[in-house]
Amino acid sequence: xxxxxxxxxxxxxxxxxxxxxxxxxxxxxxxxxxxxxxxxxxxxxxxxxxxxxxxxxxxxxxxxxxxxxxxxxxxxxxxxxxxxxxxxxxxxxxxxxxxxxxxxxxxxxxxxxxxxxxxxxxxxxxxxxxxxxxxxxxxxxxxxxxxxxxxxxxxxxxxxxxxxxxxxxxxxxxxxxxxxxxxxxxxxxxxxxxxxxxxxxxxxxxxxxxxxxx
Length: 214
Fold this sequence. Notes:
Layout: E1 2-8, E2 11-20, E3 23-29, H1 32-48, H2 61-76, H3 79-97, H4 107-119, H5 124-143, H6 171-183, H7 187-213
């Protein structure tokens, strides 16, 4: 083990060097005091057999996600599920927290991620799915010893319930649409419209009546 002073353009920093399982490791600190405290912590963990915990969680979310994909997603998830997860991760998670170290992703960070998705106009269902994917990734991170706890657990996810009531078109609107299609000689489209509209209206009205009677 060693603590050494390193000169950089922004000023002097202190580097702690140590070996773990024959491999060299190092960490840069802003002050000699911090470097010495860190060196003492490494020595303590080495005596207790906990040295591996020093570097635990230093992988970024993006780096670990690639590992999670290879070890967990590809062997265990269906192709359609993997495709969906990849789209969600690349679109909503990677650009926002992909560069963060695993151990830096706290419940507060996850809550902010949820708020950012909402502010960006991401719908509740998509935001909920993004947090579900992230929770699955961190579940493996916990199991594999990269972090101590899953930061997504306990963070409230957006509701998946429908936000707006369904308002089917009236019979008059359906008939106007059908007349327009017939005028354009689109007989097939007009027939399909009538079948879908009246079947849907019938089911909707029946359920509405049942709900009133219950």
